[in-house]
Amino acid sequence: MGLKGRAGPPFAGLFWFAGWLFTLAYAQLPWWQAILALVIWPYYLGVRLR
């Protein structure tokens, strides 16, 4: 059967986190904007991909 509720490979979260860190470094955000991006970016991404 397999595992129910599994969305992707186990390294997908690490890939997402690495992409987020790259985005923050590329944009050269200050630390407070980086913290804000941690909360806001996944929300807008989830709304867009719905």
Question: How does this model look, in words?
Answer:
The protein is mainly α and 50 residues long. It contains two helices and no strands. The longest helix has 19 residues, at 31-49.
Q: What value does the Rg take, in angstroms?
A: 14 Å
- The percentage helix is over 70%
Beta-strand percent range: under 5%
The helix-strand sequence is: HH
The helix tally amounts to: 2
Overall strand count: 0
> What is the approximate shape?
globular
Largest sheet: none
Derived structural class? mainly alpha
In the predicted model, the low-confidence regions spanning at least 5 consecutive residues are none
- Can you give the mean pLDDT? 77
For the record, give the distance between the C-alpha atoms at the N and C termini, rounded to a whole number. Answer: 27 Å
List the helices and strands and how they pair.
Blueprint: H1 12-27, H2 31-49
Task: Produce a short descriptive summary.
Helix content is 70%, strand content 0%. The protein is mainly alpha-helical.
Distinctive features:
50 residues, mainly alpha, 2 helices
